[in-house]
Amino acid sequence: MKQPWRFSIWSFLIIVATTFDVPLCRATGIAGHVPELLVTKECRKTLAYTDAGEITAVDVNDGRKDVGSYHLEFFTIDARSLLLPILLHTNMLLYVHTGRGTVNWLVKKRVVAVEVEPGDIYKLEQGTVFYIQSSADPTREKLRIHAIFDTVVVDDENTGLDFVEVFYSNVSDLVRGFDVEVLQMGLGVSPEVIQEIKSAVKPPPIIPSVAKNGTDSRNMDWREGILDAVFGKKALQVLDSKKKEKKVFNIIKRKPDVKNSHGRSTAVTYKDAKSLKGSSMGLFMVNLTRSSMMGPHWNPKATEIAIVVRGRGMVQVVSPCKPSGLGDDERSTMRFYVKEGDVFVVPRFHPMAQMSFENESFVFVGFSSNAGKNHPQFLAGRCTRAGSASGLCGVCGGRTKEIGNGDGEEKHEEESKREEERKKEERKREEEEEREKEEKRREEERKRREEREREEERKRREERKREEEERERKEEEERKREEEEERKREEEERERQEERKREEEERERKEEEERKREEEEREEEERERKEEEERKREEEEERKREEEERERQEERKREEEERERKEEEERKREEEEERKREEEERERKEEEERKRKRKRRRGREKKKREKKKMREKDKRKRRRGRG
């Protein structure tokens, strides 16, 4: 059972050794459809770049169309700088790579803060409003944070959404979106503050930190207004008076699951770090020393997304769909070179191996899509308490020596001795080659020294020649300078004479101008006096005309009043006569009415008498008839 294992390792080393210098932007195999397993640092998308820091991002996937891509962002914040408040749309798991600072978020009307350092991990839940402040010490490293979001990106080009907005929003944009009246009533601040927030120029997402003793509130700039609006009155002072939370989990300080002379490996789940509870992501860290390898293994439960944080190395991934080593099925093997800042992905069930180079270590930290115990399966090695296998190996001269597995050591003892003898011969050969190289180097150094001496002699001759030419040039320049000075003196004397002549002419001209000016002034005064007299005369005439006009107007007014009075009297007289006529007419009509009434009354009385006579006549007739 051991011989096939050794053969597979040797095959792996030979393949890797032939592909050391293959820098790729995205890992691709020879086959038709291969998942994009590698994104180099140069291929990151820049979301924001300012003098105070930058934000970059990548989307990686494991080739499963039903899952989509995983979104990672890299925050780089300079010392004494601030990442403005952000509202998370989904959970965010972060890892602090370098630098120190404070992560702050709002919980029940108070700002909670945790101080972070390299190796710290923390999870911020969706709906959290947070901001990050780097260390105030300018001598410290930049604060670099690697973050992954729980929600995967659906690869749909028709969505039309900026992928940053899928995961979080800038609080400044949210605040500026409301009307002035809504903000004033909702936040309880003055209209001036709201207007300054609305009208101010939008700042970048990362800015230099605001001093504690900031300017007067009347000079409050846009970012101060946003912090005030979101975190309450005098929010900038909260930066120095916020509540501190207990120390966060640090993966570097945690005891490794596997550790030996070839490196160490650490995996973190929600059982190790309480902050990971409720998250679908786990975290791991692998540190390989020089000429070491993480033996071939696969993860049966989770996809692994790794970020190279130090050094360089090689990664090989084998597709489980097509067995490697059988004719054309070699194309199912993907191998690529990675360096600091690169991101590579290994889908679950895909066997993989990572190897460092001889001259530097290889450190990568990553996230797994399952927060629980994943129990990676190694081709060889014993399982540890954390479910990992001690697959850390040493790579020496193209031969792999397994560390952490005591089986087969006696069988390989003779091979180890032969390997030692071969190494001694190689060292002797290398020493001989080194001596030859040293002699050759000395000979080349002697030739270069002689060449330098000849070159220096030539330069000295050229320098003497240049000095002689410089001396002659200076003498010629001195002679020309003296001639030029003499010419200048003559020219200056001529100019002084011309200047005196011009001054005399100028003086005479000024005297003439002064005389003319005085005459003009006298003429002007006389003209003004006449104009003044004429003006007064015209004013007097105008006043008289106005007086006469006023008298005529008063006369017309009196005549008009007299005429109106007479008309009024005539009108009153006519009205009186009219009233009398109406009164007489009324009396006449009343008299006629009385006469008509008397006539009608006499008619009625006459009719009554006639009726009475008729009734009496009828009565007499009836009496005669009865008699």
Secondary-structure blueprint of this entry?
Elements: H1 2-17, E1 38-39, E2 45-50, E3 53-61, E4 69-77, E5 81-88, E6 92-98, E7 101-107, E8 110-116, E9 120-124, E10 129-134, E11 143-149, H2 163-167, E12 168-170, H3 171-176, H4 180-187, H5 191-199, E13 206-208, H6 222-231, H7 235-241, E14 243-244, E15 249-250, E16 258-260, E17 263-268, E18 282-288, E19 292-298, E20 304-311, E21 313-318, E22 333-338, E23 343-346, E24 352-356, E25 362-368, E26 377-378, E27 392-396, E28 399-402, H8 413-626
Parallel strand pairs: 8-14
Antiparallel strand pairs: 1-23, 2-3, 3-4, 4-11, 5-10, 5-12, 5-13, 6-9, 6-11, 7-8, 7-10, 9-15, 16-17, 17-18, 18-25, 19-24, 19-26, 19-27, 20-23, 20-25, 21-22, 21-24, 27-28
Helix pairs in contact: 4-5, 5-6
Discrete helix count:
8
> What oligomeric assembly is this protein in?
single chain
What is the mean pLDDT?
78
The CATH homologous superfamily of the largest domain corresponds to Jelly Rolls
- Large-scale geometry: flat
Number of domains: 2
β-strand number: 28
Poorly predicted ranges: 1-34, 157-164, 214-223, 231-241, 324-328, 381-389, 395-412
Distance between the termini: 177 Å
Q: What is the second-level CATH architecture of the largest domain? A: Sandwich
CATH class category name of the largest domain: Mainly Beta
Give me some keywords for this one:
single chain, 627 residues, alpha+beta, Jelly Rolls, 2 domains, seven-stranded antiparallel β-sheet, 8 helices, 44% helix, 24% strand, flat, disordered N terminus
